[in-house]
Design brief:
The chain is of the alpha/beta class. The protein contains nine helices and 21 strands.
């Protein structure tokens, strides 16, 4: 009798595991509709032979990440609109927002993930649908929130491959220099022209692709990670800033709140930066108009601004780009990721800066282009 019960239990367990494995491996392609429209919100300067900075503030949703092809379709539509308006040339630098690459972590997943009501529910589906990858990532996870670390780490190799193929491909397709927002990856580096990941800490990093689709230099890692307190993106030692040569001039990239620190501008000035690109993201709908919370390591000795004195948006305008005292850059652009990722909204109004003047996009929903002729 025991043998029969054992055999029955074993067969039932095998059946359950087989069914689960088949379910986890199934990736049906759901129906996809997306708004490909984009409006030109700012067009400053006069066309010349010096090139231009072109910011793309997209409006993105989880379904845009169901496959790299879908995301390519949307971003290519934006660039085609810019091209039709004469905003692309061989000296154009296109700037994309922070974390536009990070959400590649949900690419190729099951419909249940995209249909989730909350980001927590979506991440649960991500783990359940990739049990082996998730368990491996959880074993090597770091920091206080090991689940978040594992979610970011579990598909890193595929994310790096998709990120380079997608954004390098767009740079080559439209013959532009492209600041590919940012992506969170473990210990990223470019080896023989290919983006690779390592076993170490997670970094929020940006790569600039040349018009040949090849990365220019190494990934620019964020200097002041937003989630430093949890250690998921806090590596030992401090990254350095590097300036790269582009057809439009020497370019520095400051990711998100890195653009608030005067010392970072001094580092860029020391390397002769003429242009500053800021891929940015502000979490939470309505945050832009709420009181600025400040940063613990951004002391009053560094900036004459205290938490609560201004709104989040006003702080970005006060602290960012060429309004910094002594900055030698002639122009810069801050581009924000917009859209809705489950219950996680976004804020931020992209703006550009030239000779100490700011020009901001309107707060209306929808994708926006920002152009600055150099």
């Amino acid at each position: 009798m025991r043998k029969l019960l054992y055999l029955t239990f074993s067969m039932a367990l095998i059946a359950v595991l087989t069914t689960y494995a088949m379910w986890a491996a199934d990736r049906p392609a759901g129906h996809y509709l997306s708004d490909l429209r984009i409006d030109l919100a700012i067009d400053q300067g006069t066309p010349a032979d010096r090139g231009n900075l072109l910011g793309i503030q997209p409006e993105l949703f989880p379904t845009d990440y169901q496959s790299p092809d879908r995301l390519h379709r949307k971003l290519a539509a934006y660039l085609q609109k810019a091209q039709a308006q004469g905003l692309l040339n061989e000296k154009t630098i296109v700037v994309l927002p922070e974390h536009i690459g990070t959400w590649l972590m949900v690419s190729g997943e099951k419909d249940e993930l995209y249909q989730a009501n909350t980001i927590k529910e979506a991440m649960n589906w991500l783990a359940v649908s990739n049990p082996v990858k998730f368990l491996r990532a959880l074993i090597s996870a770091r920091g206080e929130n090991r689940l978040d670390d594992a979610h970011l780490r579990m598909k890193a190799k595929g994310m790096a491959k998709d990120y380079q193929a997608l954004f390098g491909g767009l740079a080559k397709e439209f013959h532009v220099t492209l600041v590919a927002g940012s992506i969170v990856l473990p210990e990223p580096s470019v080896i023989d022209g290919t983006l690779k990941v390592g076993p170490g800490a997670l970094y929020n990093s940006s790569i600039v692709f040349g018009s040949d689709g090849v990365p220019i230099g190494q990934p620019q890692r964020q200097m002041h990670p937003v989630f430093a307190r949890n250690d998921e993106t806090t590596p030992p030692g401090k990254p350095s800033l590097t300036v790269i040569d582009t057809p439009a001039g020497r370019l520095g990239v400051l990711i998100g709140r890195d653009s608030w620190y005067p010392d970072n501008y001094r580092q860029l000035d020391a390397q002769g930066a003429q242009l500053v690109a800021v891929p940015a993201f502000v979490n939470g709908r309505g945050t832009w108009d709420q009181p600025w919370r400040g940063l613990k390591d951004l002391t009053s000795a560094a900036v004459s601004l205290k938490a609560g004195e201004v709104s989040e948006g006003q702080a970005w305008h006060r602290l960012t780009l060429t309004t910094q005292p002594g900055s030698q850059a002639i122009a810069g652009m801050s581009v924000f990721l917009r859209g809705q990722f489950w219950d996680q909204g976004s804020a931020g109004q992209s703006f550009l800066s030239r000779n100490g003047q700011h020009f901001a996009s309107d707060p209306v929903r929808g994708a926006r282009l920002l152009n600055l002729w150099l």
